[in-house]
Design a protein that fits this description.
The chain is of the alpha/beta class and 273 residues long. It contains seven helices and eleven strands.
Amino acid sequence: MAEVNPIQPAGGATNDAAGAALARYYDLDLAEDQPDVDLYRALAAASDGPILELGAGTGRVAVPLAAAGRDVVAVDRDPHMLERARARWAAASHPAGRGSLELVEADMTDYRPGSRFDLVLIALNSLLLLERGDAQRAALETMALSLTPHGQAVIDVWLPTPDDLALYDGRSVLDWVRRDEELDEWVSKSTSAIYYSASNSADVTAFFDAWRDGGPARRTMRRDRIAFVTVGELTALVASVGLVVDTIAGDYDINPLRDHSDRIVLVCRRRSG
């Protein structure tokens, strides 16, 4: 399958064991390739102010930024994801007395920090897990309200091609089989997705099957509704909350958005006046 692009889990797992497993599998899903982190390192290096990440998940972006000496606030509504972020930060190599990471369990749509930030991020498709319209707009409003006058906001979402969406017909496809070194077991991920063209959305079900050599498998399931956005819809939402788009890129190297681009990466600032 053209991948069901990695997306931050939506939270609200049915029990603690399932929630902890899904957070671990999220890290396993992204174990091999995280090209966006270098982009955020570069943007962070351009200023020396604090950083806010909304939908921070397991801290795969927030922890490297904090480890580089920055003061970072990481917000997520899933406590299991934040617990892994906490452990990741504790294990990180970082200069003593430099950099900090504050983990906040909250929903990005109504979170209101007590201070403002020079860099605010909604990374790797997190915006797409929010309902179209009001919820997505509310998250972007949080970004706008959290920015300093000279700060930057970055939104990164997947832009599926027609070929990608043609595969969203309910078929089940094996995405990968990987070794989970933490629990000394194998894990496979398979995905089934159905696309609804009228609403430009998809229901995605992921199955994670874990087993030890020679033992029975146990299954953990995650369901998400993904609300895709076009570049026109996203720029209109951004403008509606008082942000101005400085860059519309189609990849993490900030190359211009093209017809063949499979991402939208917006870099924005607050509207002056």
